[in-house]
Amino acid sequence: MRSPRWGYFRIITGTLLGGMLGFYFMHRAELKYKEMWSERLKKYEEEMNKRKAQEAESNESL
């Protein structure tokens, strides 16, 4: 039978490495999600500016 110290070492090491790996993947997912919403917001603002410009043109022609 192996020593309990080795078992504790494996459990602690696995917990720490698993936590770091999980943090890394969640951090990447969060950055990707923020970037996606940033792009959507940029497209929305461009669309709103186009609509305002079209409204201004139509009001000037009247």
Walk me through the structure:
- Keywords: Coiled coil, Membrane, Transmembrane, Transmembrane helix.
- The model has no long low-confidence stretch (mean pLDDT 94).
- The radius of gyration is 27 Å and the shape is rod-shaped.
- The chain has a domain of 38 residues.
- It is mostly helical and 62 residues long.
Provide a short characterization of the protein structure.
This protein has 62 residues and is mainly alpha-helical.
Q: Output the structural class.
A: mainly alpha
The share of residues in extended strands comes to under 5%
State the share of residues found in helices, binned by percent: over 70%
In the predicted model, the low-confidence regions spanning at least 5 consecutive residues are none
- Rough outline: rod-shaped
Instruction: Compute the CA-based radius of gyration.
Output: 27 Å
- Tally the beta strands: 0
Major β-sheet profile = none
Return the string of H and E elements: H
| Mean of residue pLDDT values | 94
- The rounded distance between the terminal residues' Cα atoms is 92 Å
Determine the number of helices (DSSP H or I, runs of at least 4 residues): 1
Transmembrane segments: 6-26
Coiled coil: 34-61
Keywords: Coiled coil, Membrane, Transmembrane, Transmembrane helix
